[in-house]
Amino acid sequence: MTASKQAETQTKTPHRWGERVIETIIRISGVSTIVIVGLIFLFLLKEGLPTFLDIPLRQLFGRRWYPIEALYGILPLLVGSLLVTIGAVIIAVPLGLIVAIYLGEFAPTWLREILKPLIEILAGIPSIVLGFLGWVILAPLIQDMGAPTGLTAFTGSLILAYMALPTIISISEDALYAVPKEYRDGALAIGATQWQTIWRVVLPAARSGLVIAVMLGVGRAIGETMAVLMVTGNAANIPEPGPGMFFQPVRTMTATIAAEMGEVAQGSLHYNTLFGIGIILFLITFAINSIASRIVGVQGNRRRGGQL
Amino acid sequence: MSRQQSNRLAKAIITIVSAMVIIPIVFVILFVVYNGIGALSWEFLTAPPTNGMREGGIGPALLGTVILTFVVAIVAMPFGIAAAIYLAEYAKDNRLTRWVRLAIVNLAGIPSVVYGLFGLGVFVLFLGFGTSIIAGGLTLGLMTLPVVISTSEEAILAVPQHFRTVSLSLGATKWQTIRHQVLPHALPGILTGVILGLGRAAGETAPILFTVAAFYLPELPKSIFDQTMALPYHLYVISTQVPGMPLTIQYGTALVLLLIVLSFTLIATLVRTNMRRRREW
Amino acid sequence: MTTLFAACGDGAERQTGASDSGEPERAIQNKGSDTLVNLALAWVEEYRVVDPSVSIAVTGGGSGTGIASLINGTVDVANASRKMKDKEIEAAQENGVEPIEFTVAIDALAVVVNLENPVNELSIDQLSDIYTGRITNWKGVGGNDAPIILLSRETNSGTHVYFLEEVVRKGEKKNNDIFAPQTLLMPSSVGITSEVRRNVNSIGYDGFGYVDPHHEKMIAVAKDDQSPYIMPSVASGSDGSYPISRDLYMYTAGVPTDVIAEYLDWVMGPEGQKIVAELGFVPLPKE
Lengths: 308, 281, 287
Prior knowledge:
The structure holds 3 protein chains of 3 kinds.
Chain A: H1 2-10, H2 13-54, H3 57-60, E1 65-66, E2 71-72, H4 75-106, H5 109-124, H6 127-144, H7 153-178, H8 181-189, H9 194-205, H10 207-223, H11 226-231, H12 253-260, H13 269-299
Antiparallel strand pairs in A: 1-2
Helix pairs in contact in A: 2-13, 4-7, 4-10, 5-7, 6-7, 7-10, 8-9, 10-13, 12-13
Chain B: H1 3-36, H2 42-46, E1 49-50, E2 55-56, H3 59-90, H4 95-109, H5 112-126, H6 133-157, H7 161-169, H8 174-203, H9 231-240, H10 247-278
Antiparallel strand pairs in B: 1-2
Helix pairs in contact in B: 1-10, 3-6, 3-8, 3-9, 4-6, 5-6, 6-8, 7-8, 8-10, 9-10
Chain C: H1 2-5, E1 26-32, H2 34-50, E2 54-61, H3 63-72, E3 77-80, H4 86-94, E4 99-114, E5 121-123, H5 124-132, E6 149-153, H6 158-168, E7 184-186, H7 189-198, E8 202-207, E9 216-218, E10 220-222, H8 234-238, E11 245-253, H9 258-268, H10 270-278
Helix pairs in contact in C: 3-4
């Protein structure tokens, strides 16, 4: 330590001063991320607070969203987002898990080398392209299959599922990979088949990783805009409960903002309510991400230089 | 059913289901290529749309996306890399750091439309930039920031400790070490992350909906305070708002967008593979 | 690089080589009604030939969007398929913007159904019942036994507001009916016609200029039980016999001068109105 200290004091002063500046800039950059998040939230709050102050809660949680007649019931929007998200998670999580198991346990190496980039490509496809394809191909298909219209919550869920799939596959893969080899070896050694090993030993051990996969999938699905804007029909309606629920048109919170954002005069109550919806979205994703990262933080270790 | 049988059954089901999931992906990409390739030509990529956008090309939208991506790079790169250096090299393991990490995780999770809302409120209206490249670029840049920070931090952390210790023991200061030893070796990893982030930004629609995108503006923007067309928004518009729009052009536009994003991914992967091959540890 | 992009539209041969120094110095921001957007686009395309020194940016988003931008001071000319409300005019004035209204075309609003739908004519009363959800099955108006899928524009659309006031509320001032909650709000006129084309049970409304009779069927509308059922057309929109026909407007921030005044004069003049007719709208009555 002394050697470097000696060396340090021997460096030229202007050099040192310039470094100070740079290091300060670096520190500021780092800390300003907190400032940015805070700013975003505060701005949303500033513009969105009147929603919660000026509109009586009974009305705010009413069943009709029709802003031009001052009806600001956000319930149909919440239900819309919820339905589409639940549908997406129900589809994507089991499928993603199965693909992760296939990739991790059964797939030959050459196939894995093809499939992994393919999944990364899927992750990169812009949501507008998937929304476009949903509008042009999927919606007519679903209508042909007997739905009253192809623009439904299910259509949205299907597309969202595909968008969330790469995340879920990758996290599931990590979770499965993290299960120590000894667990597998032990099970196989006492005569379990591969499937028994997976089902009884590996999956339960990877449980918390899978929970994170679900949470991040939910976060991804709830925040998606363009794809649902194009295929869910945008009807601010609460469908009749029952399995047919998913085949009704709905209107998500994100699509509402995107569709109505341009119409609003700055400062009007409608403007405020859109920011109010933005606050809700922010808080939901904040909660999901904070919880998920706490689970990871408890388990994960910081990797440092070369060691894994 | 014996254990062997259920084992085989499970494997079969898993394989079949995986195929059922993967094959549509391939199919979808091929479908877009098949239907869109007919529209592609140099003319298509450079000419403006004509005849109510039913003919002509996507030139202004393509250029707009290129310009926006540039602005995002300028906004997100210096800021993001600096923040990554902070996290990797300077931050101590205390509450402040935990909050910084939490902030980044949350920035990454904010829905793109909420970024658009923020961009509209702050850049377009409050700061008075109007719908402009600077407003759109800043909004997209903010959105890309967390990706740049995370991947850059990973790249910096991946540089082995001994580079640092050797440099410090030879008398270099901390910053000198970072600048001359750590950063150059982390650069390919950082670049990979930046390129991937830019690829994502190029494909986003919601943040640019009300901060910069124009429905029809064939003239080139002359300053960062001008509006511009942009490819993702153009695809949205021609597929939902123009009567009699030929499907070939719609698919062609989707294909171009796909190719742009894919080439970003490809370049990033190439950088990463190259780095893996050449790295000195 | 600029050379390649300094192209003009209208399918003219693109010049390679030295670009003209026609860097547009005068710019107009034009935003608003989706009903008007394709008309606005056609005008702009033609006007670039008339006066290449002017650059006009056209954006849709709905009448509400255009008017909001006018109020916010971020647009020069707002397109609207409905009149500005008193509240909006006040808000604009508070912001220092004095909206000036110009009627630029007339539009017959067509009610459209799928080609295979047997229903041909509906009265305004029936349309109101359908769109408020009082009638939910086609057999209630003499059609098939099938659910009615309601299609509408978004709430920021002037067409939506017009339809609300004149059809859903039948033009009655005291009427407070609104669209049924299960109404699908499509992002644009094209969204409506696309869905109508492929959905046998759907019903929607669109500007007459957006309808392609080869792909969608227009409904003859009667003002009430005693009136005749009239099909929308340029003629019936022009002579007022078609009950749901409306003016299309352009609003400027303050009295237009210079570039904007020239453009508006051209739009309302013979050349601009010729394009109106070409696109299926009703030209302004000749003085």
